[in-house]
Amino acid sequence: MYRSHNCGELNATHINTEVTLSGWVQKSRDKGFIVWVDLRDRYGVTQLVFDEERTSKEMMERAQKLGREFVIQVKGKVIERASKNPNMPTGEIEILVSELTILNKAIVPPFTIEDETDGGEDLRMKYRYLDIRRNPVKNNLIFRSKVSMEVRNFLSNNGFIEVETPYLIKSTPEGARDFVVPSRMNEGEFYALPQSPQTFKQLLMVGGMDKYFQIVKCFRDEDLRADRQPEFTQIDCEMAFVEQEDILNIFENLTRHLLKEINGVEVDKFPRMLFDDAMRLYGNDKPDIRFGMEFGELNDIAQHKDFGVFNNAELVVGIAVPGGNAYTRKEIDKLIDWVKRPQVGALGMVYSRCNDDGSFKSSVDKFYDQEDLAKWAERTGAKPGDLVCVLSGPANKVRAQLSALRMELAERLGLRKPNEFAPLWVIDFPLLELDEETGHYHAMHHPFTSPKPGQLELLDTDPGAVKANAYDLVLNGNEIGGGSIRIHDKETQATMFKHLGFTPEEAKEQFGFLMDAFQYGAPPHGGLAFGLDRLVSILGGQETIRDFIAFPKNNSGRDVMIDAPAAIDDEQLKELSLQVTVNK
Amino acid sequence: MYRSHNCGELNATHINTEVTLSGWVQKSRDKGFIVWVDLRDRYGVTQLVFDEERTSKEMMERAQKLGREFVIQVKGKVIERASKNPNMPTGEIEILVSELTILNKAIVPPFTIEDETDGGEDLRMKYRYLDIRRNPVKNNLIFRSKVSMEVRNFLSNNGFIEVETPYLIKSTPEGARDFVVPSRMNEGEFYALPQSPQTFKQLLMVGGMDKYFQIVKCFRDEDLRADRQPEFTQIDCEMAFVEQEDILNIFENLTRHLLKEINGVEVDKFPRMLFDDAMRLYGNDKPDIRFGMEFGELNDIAQHKDFGVFNNAELVVGIAVPGGNAYTRKEIDKLIDWVKRPQVGALGMVYSRCNDDGSFKSSVDKFYDQEDLAKWAERTGAKPGDLVCVLSGPANKVRAQLSALRMELAERLGLRKPNEFAPLWVIDFPLLELDEETGHYHAMHHPFTSPKPGQLELLDTDPGAVKANAYDLVLNGNEIGGGSIRIHDKETQATMFKHLGFTPEEAKEQFGFLMDAFQYGAPPHGGLAFGLDRLVSILGGQETIRDFIAFPKNNSGRDVMIDAPAAIDDEQLKELSLQVTVNK
């Protein structure tokens, strides 16, 4: 038996108990006549003591030679500590060691295993197994496990069945590029790894499974952006005989359950916002509503006043920056530079200072009088002491730019508080999205999403205006989940594919299995998928997904720790060449 | 709202309640003046009634046209049924329908959706989404979900953390062939899909995670035998600071928890059997101990009696067949034919009838007298009325043959009772296994398994005799789990690789990341993995894994329902060719 207790549980009630502990040497302090060693395991740190009076010379010498991260086992008696440490759960006691066994030595780690480490990110990624020993990373992994477990508890208690869907499947394009897997059993043919279990869960609904969920890996062979992993984890859910309202209610309850169990936060009923309103008020389909700074559209009051920039713009829109009038001229110039950065892309910014005496001072005083500027303030909700920032241009672009500015300022003003949670539903998304490059429409959610009742006809005349039974769950400015009520009849699905540019043959080839299934009595159904990685990082108060993953991959998709992928060996190469040749 | 209740919950307490139900038309009986419809959903079946007196003519006509598997919604009043059905939870009531809505029509299904269906296996596999509507399959999927949830509950309550390990990894050979995944981000390089998260969980132990588990998909690109899927699910566990005893105890408790929660069965402490004893007594490393029929080795009493077949054999071994003396001569001849089938491979079988009067009648009376045969009976535990069956030949082969006969006879005698559970641990497995074809030794469990203390030296002189800290959990003649205490220091691991025929360079290339990690303070650790698919099917009282998987694959590895894998398209082909060429 390697241990009787762990390193986090002993306290004054254990004094005089004989215990056995195992763990890692966190650090040691050698005063010559006395040696203290901090022994660490997953559960905490316990102080060991060796001293001249009570410890044999031989053991004293061995204790003095213990290096950082040595793995040791000790037996000894729990004694009261002379100088107690109230900040440590085990701070009242220490272990007077009577037996010391070195279980494994350790060479010097490339960075210190402390909460605040001296290791840079690259080094910590390379030695991820050492990084995981550090409390912040270890606790994040434990946190992730807890969130998964609470999700499963809630869904199981609400009648959902976890069903495992296959990973080696037939390719069904879903927007991103599939990873493919050569089949050596069937030369020239390839499996795909699923981008999501979408079609499988729909088939389960056709199969009467009614309430399905799965916490499941999904795969996308695409360029990696920050915090995007080629494999990611989804909480995938689907229900039959439901309307949008049923789905919103159950997953709102799930989210509320998580916030309560994980974060100890009680949240009221989630607000619901139309997609169009989200875009109008926040320039964004995932608004962070922890703070105000709602957009005020100024076209009717700012245009036709001889200011050509505004007059020629599709949209003139502003926000009020709380306390922004305190900015110096230089600070405002820096802000203007910020919105002109290529990542934001504005051509300039107009502003109006709201003075404490109720007067205004704008960068366009030549064109707008005090009465005009008072209207701007009113429209953006600006109070004396605030700053009104105004952008103009094509509506879609200018909304995105002002949204970026809103988020940046909120960050600077400390309005994005990590421990405050403001969830909301964004509903009534457009069914289709115009690809401005190709001029083609594609499904905004996915091709299985149903249009709102009675809007199918609009597909021919005004496809961009068709709204979908689609919804996103947004938390603190992040989309943590999204879903839709699906199409459940063959005809509507065929119409949908037609409008997405599929020939009937292509639709049959790729999705015939699903449309065939719809003929055998498909129930109305819909669902939702949460991105577990992001959900966990937001509940955990951090934006970095990587901190909550045991073995992240770097930007090229390689495992940072085991240096994958590997070059293929000769035998495999031969087989693959053969397949490719045969297929030609 | 599609329903106020489900189809399995209404009973006499609901009489006079107005309800809304949705589901599938299981069947209908049309008597002209009255129509009964059985409405089915995941939860049960409820009888609907339409009759001339109380139903409008228009609705009556629509009810008469409802086909099997139509998806409908009804509103109506719960009324007492005239002829009650005590075998149905809803058998006291029926619904007098006031509104009928057809949600989706259905074409005639290719087989009947009944517990006993007319559909052959191929058809049911092809239309798996219809097969899943049948109670036996549906209940198996729900059962599987319940087992997974109970596993998670137990492990979470015992301090285990579920950590997700990556699916796109660097290839680390583990016996079977890896599936490979071309990386389009890194031309000419390939990921592998994990055969198990073995090395990752060991790195988590080095990382101090202490108690890890994961219910995880594993992949093997190998020939498919019956009920082998190219992807399968593993309950993967690992612990640090443990000895074999700790692991056996915790996973014995897990198994006992499952048997109790899932099957309502209380099981005593699991017996532990040495691998050598299992082979000697049952000819098998996964003995079914629900019944006796232990092997009796007869060399000392059956050899040197002028019967050349036995005299020349390495092993003469028999079993007692309970009540087997009742077999006719013809039946015994058939049994002899059975052991001579190529799948079993015995050259013949000797038998001795144990008559009720205490006398014996054997097929080798010429060589053995009553006293000899009495010893055979004693050695195999045969009683009057039994039949002693004896095989002889090379020890390994004859044990396997007699084990096959033992299992076959037990099956025929009804001794393998699906609702009886007899778990045991088989321990002290050999470390290495001789590949008779190549003459090389390979790791019986895997190369990370530690030898028993003090046996490392034997590797040079008698590798086949080295025992490992390896154990299997056996249930009803099936290996449901297996594991080992791992090597946790670089030197021993290097020695192990050397004995497995790796050059130091190969070992470094393939497993350097693990051996490097061991240098930074690796704790003693070990673990176990359960095959979830098999565990679930055995707890469910069935041997067929496929019944517990939503979307099985056929023998070529294809999904039986969506006909994967797909032929690769031209664009993908071009990219792959490029990669393969570059790599050359």
From TrEMBL, chains A, B:
GO BP terms, alphabetized: aspartyl-tRNA aminoacylation
Record has NAD as a keyword: no
InterPro entries from the UniProt entry: Aa-tRNA-synt_II (IPR004364), aa-tRNA-synth_II (IPR006195), aa-tRNA-synth_II/BPL/LPL (IPR045864), Asp-tRNA-ligase_1 (IPR004524), Asp-tRNA-ligase_1_N (IPR047089), Asp/Asn-tRNA-synth_IIb (IPR002312), AspRS_core (IPR047090), GAD-like_sf (IPR004115)
Main localization category: cytoplasm
Annotated spans, Aspartate: 198-201
GO molecular function: aspartate-tRNA ligase activity; ATP binding; nucleic acid binding
Binding-site positions, L-aspartate: 174, 220, 445, 486
Job description of the protein: Catalyzes the attachment of L-aspartate to tRNA(Asp) in a two-step reaction: L-aspartate is first activated by ATP to form Asp-AMP and then transferred to the acceptor end of tRNA(Asp).
Documented EC number(s): 6.1.1.12
Domain Aminoacyl-transfer RNA synthetases class-II family profile: 144-552
An example Gene Ontology CC term for this record: cytoplasm
Stated name of the protein: Aspartate--tRNA ligase
Statement: the UniProt record of this protein carries the keyword DNA repair: no
Entry-linked Pfam families: GAD, tRNA-synt_2, tRNA_anti-codon
Locations listed in the record: Cytoplasm
UniProt xrefs under HAMAP family: Asp_tRNA_synth_type1
Gene: aspS
